[in-house]
Amino acid sequence: MNEQEIHRSECEDGTIVAEPNAVPPRPQRIILTLVAGLALLIFSLFLSLTTGIFPISYAELWEVLFSANPDPILKEVVYQTRLPFALDMLLLGGCLAVSGTLLQLRTANRFASPTLTGLMPGAMVGLCVVLLLGMNLDSFGSMALCIAGAVFGGFIVFTLNKIHFIRGRSAEVHLFMIGFIIDVALRSISGYIVLLGENQQEWAISVGGWGIREGSFTFWLALVTLLVAGSVFAFPKLLRPLYIPFVIVLTAATVWACGTIGYIGLIVPYFMRCMIGNRPRLLMLGSILWGGGLLMLAKVISARINEPVGIPLTPVLACIGIPFLIFMVWREWKRSSLLEK
Q: Per the similarity annotation, which family is this (predicted)?
């Protein structure tokens, strides 16, 4: 096997990572990836502003955005309702993608994501406990329980992952198998807690990943996301030991605000690292662009499938995430076989 088939790159903590059939990303590819992410973001935002119960054509939207005297009703719908909600989706998608990117950078594992590390299902257990106790969802006490649940779920997955009781598997596939098992177990616990509650419909909306709940502290979620992304962008090496605590807070905040949303925290960081490499600053920027744009686009599709109610976001994202996950597993098996040779 020659040097073009295996590219060895040194991570910031000194770990040597071998990537078969990989070459250092060229500047043209990095720029193209970021520009494409920005284009996806703008396109998804444009679709989000035209999608809803009140129909708005593209010409009417153009008039609202750029005309000096737009229709007051259309202006109110766009600026007071749809634009804030679209920005919420951008915030959530960016938050989930940044969480997955930090996990993959810290663990040097391509399958590390808020879901497969137990953080998101653990936080969901905490949210279900909040609902069972009748606590105010928009309180910092409920946020603290979500953080505690995320810590609990992550502790289980990382502890079991260190045991390596599934022999003959690579580190990536081992984490995937452990994370999948714990994810199913914690989601079952959450489902059982939901059955103990009284208002099933309210619970389903709170934990089902329909989007940010009305009244949730969007400001605090935005503040935490911007602080984490900005800090990592400014001091990537200095803050490397804090990547996991950052991810715990970000994941708990997203579950607290909208329930569970899968796949964004896995496929976007994986794609970004393939296209950009292990460059924390560029990865932060690319993750926000692609994560926010993809989640906004998924929300548009979910809203148009079952108008005007829509469907949860995770089934829509699964149409992309499941094939991509299968590709990731296949690629990892191929990578392991090449390294063995």
A: Belongs to the binding-protein-dependent transport system permease family. FecCD subfamily.
